[in-house]
Structures are given as C-alpha cells and as structure tokens.
TrEMBL record:
Cofactor(s) the protein needs: Zn(2+)
The protein, known as: Uncharacterized zinc-type alcohol dehydrogenase-like protein
Family: Belongs to the zinc-containing alcohol dehydrogenase family.
Molecular function (Gene Ontology), one example: alcohol dehydrogenase (NADP+) activity
Record domain Enoyl reductase (ER): where: 29-357
Organism of origin: Flavisolibacter ginsengisoli DSM 18119
Amino acid sequence: MESVRTTPEGATTIKTKEVKAFGTSAADAPLNQLNIHRRKPKPHDVEIDILYCGVCHSDLHTARNEWHGTVYPCVPGHEIVGRVVNVGEHVKKFKVGDLAAVGCMVDSCRECDYCKEDLEQYCEEGNTGTYNSPDKYLGTQTYGGYSESIVVTEAFVLRVPENLDLAATAPLLCAGITTYSPLKHWNVGPGKKVGIVGIGGLGHMGVKIAKAMGAEVIVFTTSLSKVEDARRLGADDVVLSKDEEQMGRYAGKLNFILDAVSAQHDINAYLSLLRVDGTLALVGAPEHPLPVAAFSLIPYRRSFAGSMIGGIAETQEMLDFCGKHNIVADIEMINIQQINEAYERLLKGDVKYRFVIDMASLKR
Ligand code: NAP
Ligand code: ZN
Ligand code: ZN
C-alpha cells in the first residue's frame, strides 16, 4: 500500500504495510485489536516478524498515561524477539531467516556526544522509543511489539544468543538491560553486598545478573510467596520488607541497592541500609514522587541515583553475557487476548516473573 504521510519534514509519500496490533485508544480503555502501518524497509532497515514480546510494567504505565504524555492510539511492547523476514539493500548484520531482537529504542540522533559514547538512551534530542515516540518516517507515534511485525534500522537491532530459549530471552531486552546497566556502572561484583528491591520482571533479572557478576545478593520483597523462590533465583538472603526486625539486620550494611519497585514505597527505609558511600539506584518509576529525608543521605555520604535502560552496544553486551551465563527470564506465556487480565495481575505483583506474549495468538 502507498500512503501519503505528513512527516516532521512535510508531506511525503512512503510505502507502508498494514499489520495487526493490540493497543489502546484512551487511558481508561482496555487494549483491543487494531491495525497500524509499518514502513516498507528502507536500505538500512530490518523487518522482523515478531514471535514473542515481553510485558513490562512501563507498558502499563504508558497505556494508562500514568507518566502523562501518552499519545493514543498506543501500542506498547519493547521486549521483542522474532525472525528477520526482509532486509534493506545496505543491511550487513542480518539476513532473512535470522533471529533478531529489539528493545526500548528504535533510533536516536546518532550525532550528539551521548550517542557517540554509546549512550543513546540519554540522546540530547531524546531517543526514539519503540513506542509512544514521534516516528521519524510516518509522522505518527511509534508503535511497539504487541504487533505482527516491526521495521527497525539495523543499528538498533540486536543479535540473539543461539543457546537461550527464545521466549524467555524477550524480557532481557528491557528487564535485562535495565538491571545490567546500573549493576555494571556501580561496579557490582565479588566482595560487594547488593540489595535488590521489588522482585518483578526487572527485580528477578537483577538478582540473576548481580549473582552472575559475583556479588552477594540480598532480596527485599513485600510478597511472602517470593521469599522461598528468591533463593532459587540466586539470592543469598531474603528480607520480607514489611518486617522491621528483618530490615534492621542490614542497616548500614549494603554497598549498592537496585530499586525496581513500580509503586509508592518508603525509600528512606532502603537508604538507611547503605554503607558509607553506598548508592541506591532507582530504576522503578512510580507515578508519584518519592520523598527523601536529608538525614537518609547526609550521615553516611550516601547517593540516591537513577538509571535508564542501557545503550545499544551495552544491550548486545548484556545479551552475550546472558548467553554465556545461561541467563533468561522466568516467564508465564500468555495469548495477546489475555493482556488486560495480565495488566491487572501485574498491578498485584502476581507474576513469576514476566508475562511473555506468544504473538502467534494475534494471527489467529
Ligand atoms: P513488575 O514486574 O510489576 O514488578 C514490580 C515489583 O514491585 C512487584 O513485583 C513488587 O515486588 C513490587 N511492588 C509492586 N507494588 C508495590 C508496592 N505497592 N509496594 C512495594 N512494592 C511493590 O514491574 P517491572 O516491569 O519489573 O518494572 C518495575 C518498574 O521499573 C516500573 O515502574 C517500570 O516502569 C520501571 N522501568 C524502568 C525502566 C528504566 O529504564 N529505569 C525500564 C523498565 C521498567 P515484590 O512482590 O517483590 O514486593
Ligand atoms: Zn520496559
Ligand atoms: Zn543523540
């Protein structure tokens, strides 16, 4: 199909293909089937038939406009694995039939200092998110992985380790890199005591990766049902965070804490667990601000930090690291028609530990 699209540069004719997707038309509407357009591959593009897509809590925050700025219709999904079905003439890394993956970004300016340093997630112009970002080609928003296929410029497409289960690899593309990047940046490794707070999709990957990096890992969870299970994931100790006595055992003891909680919680209770010069990095992004007391930071020269996903080169490094250490997500497979129910369960912390959509269900 050929359609005239108004891009940021003006009206232009671009060849597109209509594909099935699942998305929402308003913050309070359920997700439903809809059709979207994908551009026909340009010389540097890779077209991927999507096989599996992970369900990140950011999909839910965005679909329901909890961070404000969602443009509808919104098609979430940024933990994408699939098979290459078409490549542009200049594509070098991929050929038809290869497995390929796409994470949270599909482009960036590629010229600013951050892009040149492989930190595209912090691009000065703002990276192009896999969904809910202005689409440079079509003039619409970008649409994510809850869809039949996606077309992405080669530089933002990742290679998938051959030895890993494909469906369980999908969550690495966001939950994996979002935990790997800060764990590496803050030098987590042997001799370090590391706390992981909130054992959902991100948190459970954080446990596996921190353990593979050689750290001593302490899990903090609000869920009784995850206490036993966290040891299976690799935790050296588990703290039920509602229990003050259990929390007290780690006061002033941890070098680093990764906080992956999706909702309001008392951040000061966790800051108090850091040693002198320790850092708590927030990757969880609750809708409302988290108040920090000055005296949670001052007496121990503590740092309160944040971290956003990871760059493309680092995402490939993480995938290769997971291939080498045989790390994938613990998943519960769903059909796309179950996505609204899955969101409700996500809100209750009721998933061990990542929903992955079998995208074949969209074609049925
Ligand atoms: P998830 O699977 O829903 O996990 C969140 C976990 O937080 C839950 O499993 C639960 O762990 C804990 N939790 C939930 N509600 C809580 C409450 N009221 N009080 C205390 N703990 C609570 O979510 P996810 O996909 O891992 O994402 C986690 C957060 O990271 C989201 O806000 C998401 O948007 C954000 N995120 C950020 C980035 C980034 O670049 N920084 C990237 C991806 C996602 P327990 O049962 O163990 O307590
Ligand atoms: Zn995500
Ligand atoms: Zn840039």
